[in-house]
Amino acid sequence: MNKTLQYIFLLVAAALLGGCASQNEPQPEEKVFRVTSSIAPFAGEDMARVNTEGTAFTIGDLIRIKIICPFVSGTQNGETTWGNTYDAFWLLKWTGSWGPLDGSEKFDINGDSKYSGSSNINAQIEAQNTPYVYTASTWATEQKFINPNNNRVVLQYTPLFFADQSREENYRISDILWAQTYMQTGTEYVHLEFRHVMAALRITLDGNIGAISDDAILTLEGMPDIDRCEIVVGDYYASLSKVNSDYGYLQKHSCTKEMNGKVLGIGVNDEAAGIAKTVAMADVAKTGIYTALNVGSKSYRIMVPPCVLTDNAVFVLRDGNRRLKSTLEQKTFAEGTLYNVTITVPTE
């Protein structure tokens, strides 16, 4: 064999051996972005949510995440979903971990009039060297309408409040959770500690409880009339959002630093003005009637919005033809606070 052929043979052999060695070496795992979560308890309670007791998320719970890099003008990784969702929300579902929607939830998501999934936040690697703010909340339904000013579809992924909380699902949906995490740079992992932004009442019947059946219905009358309304929580960074839709996040959620993470009121779509706006709870009529969730053992629970009442609300216990009224002495309801209330059933 001449020297040239010998040299080529050695090169090929070395390449083949190198290829075999690299195939046998451990390959690096593909990096994915991870979202984890925890839930802080109500003030006045040892436990936390989002099952009825408030201890955990349940299968199928939904959250939306808004990512904002507040100190740079260019759009960074994670700040956009490339038109897949309105307001560039990342929409996630709890299945034991947080992942994208897959279409089985029967949401339009992107406005094409078809059920579809959401963009996968786990495929995002946010490595930019600039602060990131992750703001998340639970949500329950998708609202869809046409902007009369430009005939474009508007979608809103809405946290809802139900006046009738006698169904466990409505009670849990009304227990709106909010979280905000600030990171000094882009990251591959973010933890969201959710907290309750609504207040809760835990009502216990006392006294002659043997006279009350297990099917008795309890209502609370004289509360803010916000049935099926969107609950808007302030985000100090919302004004710096780079991806914004009509009737969207920036208009409703922008606030002062003092109101960051606090309930601003209810969201209203003002089609005459062509904007979305927030109506403060103080400006909502106090004609609402809330129906409590019966949790057994002559106990009930009701979610209520943070508010200050001028007049006392009134409990009405309905059991067959019997009616029992009791004044609720509490007039101020602070977010994230559980209030224990006792209603005494008189002896007849």
User: Which structural class fits the helix and strand makeup?
Assistant: mainly beta
The main pleated sheet reads as: 7 strands, mixed
- Distance from N terminus to C terminus (CA atoms, Å) equals 116 Å
Tally of helical segments = 3
Strand order within the widest sheet?
Answer: 1-10-9-5-2-3-4
Mean pLDDT across the residues is: 89
Approximate helicity band: under 10%
Q: Give the low-confidence spans.
A: 3-22
Give the number of DSSP strands.
23
Succession of helices and strands:
HEEEEEEEEHEEEEEHEEEEEEEEEE
Global shape: elongated
Beta-sheet strand percentage? 35-45%
Radius of gyration: 26 Å
Structure report:
The protein has 348 residues and is mainly beta. It has three helices and 23 strands. It has helices at residues 3-24, 168-174, 249-253, and strands spanning 34-39, 62-68, 90-94, 98-100, 132-138, 141-146, 153-158, 160-161, 177-183, 189-196, 199-207, 217-223, 229-233, 263-270, 275-279, 288-291, 293-296, 299-304, 307-308, 314-319, 322-327, 332-333, 338-345. β14 and β15 (275-279) form a beta hairpin.
In brief, what are we looking at here?
This protein has three helices and 23 strands. It has 348 residues and is mainly beta.
Features:
elongated; 348 residues; mainly beta; single chain; four-stranded antiparallel sheet; 10% helix; disordered N terminus; seven-stranded mixed sheet
